[in-house]
What does this fold into?
Amino acid sequence: MSAVSAQEQAEAPDNDPLNLPANVALLGHNDPTVRKATAIVNGAIITDTDVDQRLGLVLAASPQAISPEERARLRLQVLSNLIDETLQIQEAAANKITVERAEIQQTYVRVGTQFKKNPTEFADFLKEKGSSEASMKRQIEGEVAWRRLLGRQVEPFVSVSDDEVRQVIDRLKASKGAQEFHVGEIYLAAPLGNEAPVMANANRIVDQIRKGASFVAYAHEYSEASTKAVGGDLGWVRAEQLPDALAAAVQQMPTSAVSDPIAVPGGVSIIALIDKRQVLTTDPRDTVLALKQISIHVDPGASKEQAQPKITAFADQLKTLKGCGDVAGIATKIGAEVIDNDSLRVRELPPQLQDVMLNLRVGEATPPFGSSADGIIRALVVCGRDEPQDANLPTFEQVQSQMEEARVNLRARRYLRDLRRDAVIDYR
It folds into this structure.
């Protein structure tokens, strides 16, 4: 041992269990451009970069600042999701199922349009959020490959008898006037003995959503049900079509609410009540309106008193409105912008506007609404309305399709569970 080495060891802190020298000479360099494997799944590498970029998609859906502890927990969940996604893609490939790049690109462009961005702008947006175009396309590939695999390996072996469908339709007839619910679900599997951490994870997800995070985005990332590809949307269901625990919860929830985590067989569900209506009855909120939106801009930095004269002048002009043909002239007079929408259901409007719109006649306008802090004050003018038609029973095929989807969903969870059990995963 050299004198220098002996001195370095002697100067190491007494309480250092590793007995590290005080002066360390690195014999290599750490290249930050080299991506390190976080897990190897049946030989396929998931890198730190893969996890960070997918985490960026999750964080982009949360408007709230996330603590370092929550970020670390989310990172572990993202890694788990990436492992499942890798297993799904591998199983699809083993069954000679591939997703063409052109199809992935088409879906990518469609997702970008939902953010009102072209492909180049969408790529820049993802990069700004700490993600990437490649990460988004990988998620698209996983979802499409899994759906196709289920279509080949699961759906052909799921059947619903005619008698089962007729029984549901008979129950629907008997329940005319009862409530029907538009429900979203995030399902987390909880293997035996792992219920507590899964429930804790579900509680954290609920907390983030209630703080403003997107339920749809979290369903895309976390849900282990086949509906994750559509943001957890279960569509319109009756209480009797849901598991007992979910049925009991949804009947007590107000519209737009998110439930506490609910223990169900095999896991935990979080449900969102998007809307509700009465079975087989006409709902006024299904009225379809033709609208013109007229809007003015105010200084976002102005006080309420400073903005009020312009808002009052806007309201006074609306009172002189003589039908939709008069909108363009008033807009020119006050420097307003006009946007047309010829097919909007009342239920698609914010809850605060729905009752107002139902009580307006064609040619009438709402009072101004908005906030001077947003810089835009709006009003809606009714230019036409189509009253809702009498509600009809869902068709035999619609009921059968929904029942089949529920059974496919159950078998899909079992399929993924078996893939996890048989996988060789090397964590690094």
